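Hello again,

I reread your note about wanting to compare the complex against the isolated chains. To keep things tidy I'm splitting this into two emails, and this first one only covers the full assembly. Below are the input lines as submitted, including protein chains and any nucleic acid or small-molecule components. They are followed by the predicted structure of everything together. The single-chain runs will come separately.
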Amino acid sequence: MQRGGNAVTEGQDGVIMDDGLLRALRPGMIRFARLQLRDDELAEDVVQDALMAAMAGAKGFAGRAAFNTWVLAILRNKIADAIRLRSRSINISALAPEEEGLDQAFEALFKPNAHWSPQSRPRDWGDPEDSLQRDQFWIVFEACLKHLPENTSRIFMMREFLEFDTSEICKELAISSGNCHVILHRARNALRGCLEQSWFDKGEQTC
Amino acid sequence: MLSCKEVTRLLSESQDRELTLFEGLQLRMHLAMCKGCANFDRQMKFLRKASRQYAASVSRADRNDRSD
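Full-complex prediction:
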């Protein structure tokens, strides 16, 4: 925990805020925004906006955890705004070659009768919750997300990180709900495959 | 009877919408008999848990100290 030696800012209601607190949050916020926006400059802007809003609105938070949660909520809203603005200029429904590639890889997991082919049947990941405690797992998790095609990843993160309902996603991005489900299914399959290959198959087998 | 491919679709959609009674029934029957899909089911749930934890951890400075 970073403490001491930091400049203090007097919030509008006279709440003393530690600059170090916001500084400590910044790198994670930037990484989170970059992952979703795939535009470093925009990500910096969005985080800056969120931090300014956080500083301006800081009112007696009962402890650091509550404050952090609140800053994250601001960041999520700012990212959602940026995605909304940007979605007007991109065609989400168009299938990029990368997405077609993912669909082909998915189809290849099955026999002609649409049941798993023996070599690609999903394996038992053992106790995957243990992985959530490992820093190395999160590096693989981020790498797998970065590996997704842009639109696929954006919709997945809107759903899972920003916690939009699919109906909201459809509306924001002007796609059908059927298409939304197809894209989320594609994203989850790709992530599942990536985690299996890059993490779970590399660790100890627990068959 | 559902194919495994259809089961993966329903398992994904079950995270985004309420399945119909009939879909749920078909799904449960399939999962009871198919180990691959039962594993897939657990993996989808893990994926959600990991994603939610990832998003929440952005506000935890201890992970932010990690270099890129």
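For quick reference: Helices of chain A lie at 19-37, 40-57, 64-87, 97-107, 135-147, 150-160, 166-173, 177-200.

B.
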